[in-house]
Specification:
The complex is a heterotrimer of chains A (241), B (321) and C (293). Chain A has 241 residues and is an alpha/beta fold. In chain A, the strands form 2 sheets. A 6-stranded mixed β-sheet of chain A has the order 6-7-8-3-9-10, with helices on both faces. In chain A, a hairpin with a 2-residue loop joins β4 and β5. Chain A starts with a strand and ends in an 8-residue tail after the last helix. Chain A has a domain of 136 residues: 3-Layer(aba) Sandwich (Rossmann fold). In chain B, a hairpin with a 2-residue loop joins β2 and β3. Helix content of chain B is 74%, strand content 4%. Chain B has one domain. Chain C has one domain: ABC transporter involved in vitamin B12 uptake, BtuC (Orthogonal Bundle), CATH 1.10.3470. Chain C has 11 helices and 2 strands, in the order ααααββααααααα. In chain C, β1 and β2 form a beta hairpin. In chain C, α2 crosses α8. Chain C starts with a helix and ends in an 11-residue tail after the last helix. Classes of the chains: A alpha/beta (241), B mainly alpha (321), C mainly alpha (293). Chains A and B meet through α2 and α3 of A and α8 and α9 of B.
Chain lengths: 241, 321, 293
């Protein structure tokens, strides 16, 4: 099977700092992959390079056999790479419905926008809040709305950047179920600090530190990896941050 | 933004406004009849401005050039090339659309304050050009399109634009078309994308939209509406002068839209109507009407940035488009 | 007169324009640099300075130089207070939002212009020069007053440079310009710095206007040209850069004089305005500026 996404020697520096340092990475279709690592390890920069929000200093990115290194972000979204923001950035002054409609309407094919929007809202459990103004919704619901927008894009690769940050335990449980369900038709790349969520969801885990990949493997291997424990799990086991 | 249940109400409201203006055409005293015809044409100008400023959130300080492109496109082609009135109107609209495309491609490379200054400078260049080519434009003094040319022969019947009733109804026709087009834009997917760009451009990009292309379309639609207003002004009122390309005419639509309510479909008309009468009444007492314009700008931006209809929508009528 | 002296005369005239322009543009540049707002009413502060100079000097009896000196002292102070008032009443309440500020200062432009028309009238009036010394060159005589404008401008620019780079006030201003939030956190009264800078910017324009009224009459519409030229200078020189402002003022002032000899003034303005718009589109940091952080 060929990977859905690969990067070769992907690098990005800011000033003198190497935020991402020649990363070779590959992701199989249908996988749920988690990227973990301490703050400042370059996780968000790495996925930002993949989705095109920032451009790399060096290296290549290949998605589904196509070199997308120089492709603008909006075209990558059209290829099926969806990114949900780390900091909630729904359109605060628009209704939940309009937020999802924006994601859905561009790629609509023969279906009515209304049906598509309601389906995405339904899957995230927000159907009865369609008319609420996004900015006035509870934080947990805004996070879910963010996911609903990602879903409405019908992505092949859904990148979730710290999706459970700030959610309650009950909301997290619902969220895990949701991502599992999404994982049935899409490949998921998940940046996550909450190890419980990571262990529940990820089929494989990539550990980043100082812009490089430190280790990669199945959840159990990562748990047993000494280097990882020293760099990350050992010192600061981040339970809820 | 708006809920689907408001859709019927919104369309009904717009049709009522158009019908009301149609009715007023038969009952208004002569003076106000003339004023309203002029206000409707200028309201088209401010509706065009609103597409860019209200919906897409791009503040231009150079829209006089689009109005003037329509004005001169129609005026010069009719006077110097002997074109008919409809051909002149088309020339004006096309001139505005092409200018908007060119200006958009350049100016949209900038954002925020730089966008405001760049549009102002392009407009200033346009204004200076109308002065420089005074052989054809007669600069400040301007051109008058002869009365005989301002009409349309339809077989045996002649549509005379200098006749007040014809003029009123033509102005209303253009106003109604652009009003309904604006409503269409506001309710379309395109309008939703423009609002999204206004709210958060980065996020919009990450939903797969080419935001540059969408903003450029907004500039062109906006410029085309403004040019249509300019061309209609030339045909209906017969005067083509460089004043209409000056900075003041870039500020006016901003003021009208701010007053009536940005990103509301009827706000621009309301703002234009109100300001026209304020200036009209004020100039009866004092020559210092620019003082009122200045103070209103400051007070609006300080205390009332959403304008009349924007505030009405926020407080009472959520469905108002 | 042969070509050489003709060019010398054009350059001298250009230097006078540059001197006044540099001061005016510096005011605009400071306000933008520190406060990140564009003051569209800047040209009206210039106009107000000129009109007040006429009013003050015509009230002072005796030798013209006395009236002129009073004007040079009082006019900037009054204009500075007007600016301070506008800053407190309007700009601060807008939280210095760049776009809202532009709209508000456009309003201010109309208000000041209309008040000048109402109280000063539509006439153009000159202020007598403080002295009438003529410097006799081999080819032509040249106004000593005009040369003194250049000298005054150089002195004022040096003083500004000294304040900005060598004093505590300058340090506070630069800190605010660099990062207003951090400056606030370090106990710098950002709020008062903004008020002071806005007043200072207006005062620089007023000083420039007082210097120019003996050779160019005061008129209520005289603010537009300095505003546009200052924009041009500030954009070309790079926003908030003192060195860039001076260099750009020299280029614009001198070339304006020289170009006007060969082209019509309107065409010269068309070329200059389009060129500057293109600079803003393709090189927004200005020709001499560096990319911001």
């Amino acid at each position: 099977m060929t990977p859905l996404l690969t990067t070769h020697g992907l690098s990005r520096d800011f000033g003198g700092l190497k935020a991402v340092d020649s990363v070779d990475f590959s992701l199989m279709p249908g996988e749920i992959r988690a990227i973990i690592g301490p703050n400042g390890a370059g996780k968000t920069t790495f996925v930002s390079l993949v989705c095109g929000r920032i451009l790399p200093s060096a290296g290549r990115i290949v998605f589904d056999g196509r070199d997308i290194t120089d492709m603008p972000a909006h075209k990558r979204v059209r290829l099926g790479i969806a990114y949900t923001f780390q900091i909630t950035s729904v359109f605060a002054r628009l209704s939940a419905y309009d937020n999802v409609a924006l994601a859905f309407q561009r790629a609509q094919s023969g279906r009515s926008v209304h049906d598509g929007v309601m389906e995405a809202l339904d899957r995230t459990g927000l159907a009865d809040r369609a008319k609420e103004t996004a900015g006035a919704m509870a934080y947990g619901h805004q996070r879910l709305l963010e996911v609903a927008m990602g879903l409405a894009l019908k992505p092949r690769l859904l990148i979730l950047d710290e999706p459970t940050q700030g959610l309650s335990d009950g909301e997290i449980a619902g969220f895990i179920a949701l991502v599992r369900e999404i994982g049935r038709d899409a490949t998921v790349l998940l940046i996550e600090h909450n190890m419980h969520v990571v262990m529940e969801l990820a089929q494989r885990i990539t550990v980043m530190e100082a812009g490089r990949i430190l280790a990669e493997g199945a959840p159990q291997e990562i748990r047993d990896n000494v280097a990882v424990q020293e760099a990350y799990l050992g010192g600061t086991v981040e339970a809820a941050s | 933004m708006k809920s689907d249940t408001g859709c019927g109400k919104a369309i009904a409201l717009h049709l009522v406004v158009i019908a009301g203006l149609f009715g007023l055409g038969f009952v208004l005293p002569e003076y106000h009849h003339g004023v309203l015809a002029r206000v409707m044409v200028l309201a088209v100008f401010s509706m065009g401005y609103n597409v860019l400023f209200g919906y897409a959130g791009l503040l231009s300080l150079g829209h006089a050039m689009f109005f003037a492109a329509g004005l001169y496109g129609a005026g010069l082609s009719m006077i110097h090339l002997g074109w008919s009135a409809p051909a002149g109107f088309a020339a004006g609209v096309i001139a505005g659309a092409v200018l908007a495309l060119g200006v958009g491609v350049l100016a949209l490379r900038t954002t925020g304050v730089a966008f405001m200054i760049v549009t102002m400078m392009f407009s200033q260049v346009f204004y200076l050009l109308t002065l420089y080519f005074s052989v054809w434009t007669r600069g400040d003094e301007g051109l008058v399109i002869p009365q005989a040319r301002r009409g349309l022969d339809l077989g045996a019947m002649r549509l005379d634009f200098t006749d007040p009733m014809t003029r009123y109804m033509l102005a209303l026709g253009l106003f109604a078309i652009v009003l309904l087009l604006t409503l269409g834009v506001a309710r379309s997917g395109f309008g939703r994308v423009l609002v999204a760009i206004r709210e958060n451009e980065e996020r919009t990009k990450m939903l797969g939209y080419d935001t540059f292309a969408n903003k450029l379309s907004a500039v062109v639609v906006s410029g085309t509406f403004c040019a249509a207003a300019g061309a209609a002004y030339a045909l209906l009122f017969g005067y083509v002068g460089s004043t209409f390309a000056s900075v003041q005419y870039s500020i006016f639509p901003l003021l009208w839209v701010l007053l009536g309510g940005a990103a509301t479909t009827l706000g621009p008309f309301l703002g234009t109507l109100f300001m026209y009468y304020v200036v009209d009444i004020a100039s009866g007492y004092t020559s210092a009407y620019m003082l009122i314009v200045g103070l209103l700008l400051i007070l609006l931006i300080l205390y009332f940035p959403k304008g009349v209809l924007g505030t009405v929508r926020e407080r009472w009528l959520r469905w108002l488009p | 007169m042969s070509f050489g002296p003709h060019l010398l005369l054009a350059v001298l005239e250009g230097l006078v324009t540059s001197a006044v322009l540099a001061l005016t543009a510096l005011g605009l540049s400071l306000v933008f640099g520190v406060m990140r707002v564009v003051n569209v009413a800047h040209g009206e502060f210039f106009m107000l300075g000129a009109v007040l100079a006429w009013a003050i000097s015509s009230m002072v009896p005796g030798h013209p130089s006395l009236g002129f000196l009073m004007a040079l002292l009082l006019s900037p102070l009054i204009v500075g207070s007007v600016a301070l008032l506008a800053e407190r009443l309007v700009l601060r309440r807008l939280d210095y939002n760049p776009e809202a500020t532009i709209v508000a200062t456009i309003g201010l432009l109309y208000v000041i212009q209309q008040l000048a028309l109402t109280f000063y009238g539509p006439e153009a009036r000159a202020v007598p020069a403080p002295f009438n010394f003529r410097l006799q060159l081999p080819w032509f005589g040249y106004s000593g007053y005009k040369l003194s404008i250049i000298a005054a401008s150089v002195v004022l620019m040096l003083a500004t440079w000294f304040v900005l780079t060598r004093t505590r006030i300058g340090l506070v201003m630069r800190a605010t310009q660099y990062d207003s939030e951090t400056a606030q956190a370090f106990g710098i009264p950002v709020d008062r710095v903004y008020a002071g800078v806005f007043a200072l910017g207006a005062m620089l324009a007023a000083v420039a206007a007082v210097l120019i009224v003996p050779i160019q009459q005061a008129h209520y519409l005289m603010g537009l040209d300095p505003l546009l030229l200052s924009f041009i200078v500030v954009i070309i020189g790079g926003l908030g850069s003192l060195r860039g402002t001076v260099i750009a003022a020299l280029i614009i002032g001198v070339s304006d004089g020289v170009i006007s000899v060969f082209f019509s003034p309107t065409l010269a303005k068309i070329i200059a305005t389009s060129a500057v718009a293109m600079v803003l589109v393709f090189r927004p940091q200005g020709l001499f500026g560096t990319t911001p952080r």
